[in-house]
Structure formats: structure tokens, C-alpha cells
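Quick one: structure for this chain?
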Amino acid sequence: MSNSYKLEFYQEPMLEFAHSQKSDYCKDGLFLYGPLKNKIEISYGVIGHEEGIKRFEKWIEEINSYISSADSKKLHFSSYSGFKSIFNTKLKPIDNAIIYVDKNTILNKIKQDNINKAIYETVNLYREKLIHYKNNEEELPNIWFVIIPEEVHHYGRSKSVVPKNERIKSNVLYTKRMKLSDTPGQVKIFPEMNEQAKVYDYGTDFRRQLKARLLKEKIPIQIIRETSIAPNDFLDSRNQPTRDVQDPATIAWNLSTTIMFKAGCKPWKLANIRKGVCYIGLVFKKLDKYNRSGNACCGAQMFLDTGDGLVFKGAIGNWLDKANNEFHLKKDKAKDLMKNILEEYKRGQDEYPNELFIHGRTYFNDAEWDGFLEAAQNTTTKLIGIRITRSTNELKLYRLDGNRPIVRGTAFKVSNNKAYLWTSGYVERFNTYPGFSVPNPITIEICRGDEELDTVIKDIFALTKINFNSCAFGDSVPVTLKFADAVGDILTAAPNEDVPPLPFIYYI
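Got it. Here's what it folds into:
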């Protein structure tokens, strides 16, 4: 083995909670100290069909009380002591913010044989009512719960198929094939065709499209499937739940954390990150609706040590480099995107960041990086480009005793700018590996700029612990890339060309 190779172990990153107290585990920190920043109460509204809302109200009662652990002998399962007890915050329903959507109407929309029309019109059932409430009521909820029947989940996805005996005829005059063959400015024969043509500009996933079409309205929502909160109400022929879900305590922990974050609270933040550091996750999402190869939307997720995040929508264009089958921005668009990021950071922090790390899945080409540098040339910001990928069979390490997987936090450095980091693996505090297969590392490579590899590894490891969409010990990838595909899907789910930088809460 070369002397340049080095195996190191990194301690679990610490999180900060109320009263400047610290813990490496978010559930312990919340239970012992409370969230970093809370509210006296969180107001909420709920929209859904009658049965779904009843199930939701029952679930709210449940999370306001104690829920026992799924397995007291396994330390990675935790009991849930109640929302008010954990977060020192009250969940308050707004009396008139209960909006009913007729279930038969929902099913008649989602079961249409034209999936574009089905999802567009189903989204309208919820979207139009939410916007109407916002425009006509004085007291607005901190968060809306959108309760959907299982049929919306099953049939509201791009590859879903409604059974023939349940399928409803859409009676469309204008098909997707006709849309793809259109020339710009082409006039439709019938007015109905112009209206129907709109549906093909939107993605064919209910969840993504609803979020995308609410971005401009800035309405924070949490979509909840009925089976998530009431699995025992949906049983198969063997009298077993039709869907395998997490245990009630874990669901309560995860959804409660998400509620806090989306309502404008801060459950926790990273404890030992350097001041003035900013992290960017670069996103490219191919646009299938354009009938031209290589067209994609570029986006960027900006995160601070607090976990606060903004999403920037970059330019749409032919960013595919066919030589290596990677997406890269042209120099001018890279400059524009980075300039927007730096100015937005300055608006929030009153100064430019000292260091800005750009996380991507590909190497940054010369034109792309030159654009980033030009945007930062009149600032004090140091730019560092990091390539992060998932490793599968590239490298595997095993412990000598053979009984336990490699420890989470193990890093294998192969050069001064490249390392493998195991963000999944055995966790000593749980005395177990909460996984099912041999853990694989992520590959970290400094490909642009200058920074110590040790610093980069510590930062990326820390960023696996600020996913506020759950209350897990840590993720397998940093938050900069955790939601990259999901954000890209929402950015491309609707033709929102002029969406300003928006908080991350509207995308998760």
C-alpha cells in the first residue's frame, strides 16, 4: 500500500439546540434541551376529503401525547413524548382553515386516461382552494397539511396506470404527440385545444406539480398520505396494513420536525462550523417535455450552518456535454447564477461569505468555473469545487472481527484531494448498523480551488445531519445533494420562469 493512503476516523458532528446545548443526536438534543428556535404556537390549516381530515385530526391528537418506542431494546428507536413536550410549542388549528375537497371529484379527476390532464386538474382541486383562502382571509396558517387519498399517490405519478375498469375518458382534442410536433406560435384550430395544450407544460407527478404551482404563492405545505398516519385503516385480505410504514413514534418524530422547520422554526444547527461558510448544491434536471436532446434546467441549493436554505432557478438551455455525457453551464450563465447566490447571501448576512463550497456530481469544466470566478472576483469569497458521488463496488472495507460493518465516519484518503467517506455504517451509540447491506462510501474529490481535504471531509460529514425533513441520526449524503433530484423535479414541474430565490421549505 502506498504511503499516501491514510485511514482516519471522524467523530460524529455535534448539533446545537436551545440554550447553546450540544448533542450528536437530534432526538436526544430535542428531548433534553428543546429546539434551537421555536414559536409559542404553530397555526395550521388542513385540506382534504372528509375521511382524510378526520384521520388527520385523530393523528394530531396522538402526537400531542406519548407514543412508545417500536422496540425499547434497540437504541435507534426512540419513544415520542408529545409535540408540546419536545418542542415547547403548541399546534393550533385555525377554525376556518379546514377545506373539504369532495373525494368522488378527486377520484374522477385522477383516474382520467390522459395523465397530463388528470394530474393538472387534480392539482387544481387543491391549489385553487388554497389560493382562494390566502387571498380572502386575514389569518394565514404557518403551514397547510394536504391530505391525499391513496389513489392520488398511486395514479398521480408519471408511470402510473389506472386499471381499465376504473379509467375515465378524458375527451381531449389535443394530445401530447401533437404538443411535441407544434411549432412556436402555432395557432390551434379550436379554443379548447389552447386550454388543453397547457397541461403538457407541467410535470406528471401530483406532489411535484402541486409544490411547483404554489411557489409563486409562497404557501408552505406538507403533503400527507392517509396510510402514513392511519395505516391500520387500510387492510388487505390477510387483515394486514396494505402499506409497510415506519412505526408510529418514528413517523411522529419525522413529521413533527418537518412541521417545525416549515413553520419557520429551527430544530437545530451545526455546532462547530466556521463562520462565514456557505454551501451550494448544483442541480441539473433534464427537460423531457422539450423534444431536443440535452436541454436541462439548472438550479442551485444554498445552505448555511443553521440549515437555512434557498433554492435558485438558473437558466434553461442545452447544457449537455456529449463528450463526457455531463451537464455544464456556459460561462455567462455560470457567472449569472453565482452572482445571484453571492448577492442573496450578502442580503441575508450583510457581507459576502468567506468560503463558498460548490457540491456537484460532475467535474466543473473550465468555462463553468471561469464564470463562477468572475462573479466572485470583486468579493472576498474563496470558491472551492467539490465532486461528490456515491460509490458502489468501487471500494469496500470490512472490520477485522468480521461481525460488525465499518464505522460511520471512517475515511480512506487516497490523495491530498480525494477520499472515500463512510456516512453509513456501524453507529457506536446504537451498538448497531441500522442498514441491511454492506455500507458503501461516498467519494469526495476537491477538483477546483484550494482547501484542506480534512476540512472538506468534516464539513460534508456535518452536512449529513441537517436534513429537517426527518429526525434521523444522519443521512448517507450531505443535504446539498440529498434533495438535488427532488428540487430539480419541482423546478421543472411547471413553467415558472421568473421564480425568485425561495426558502428550501417550499421544495421539500
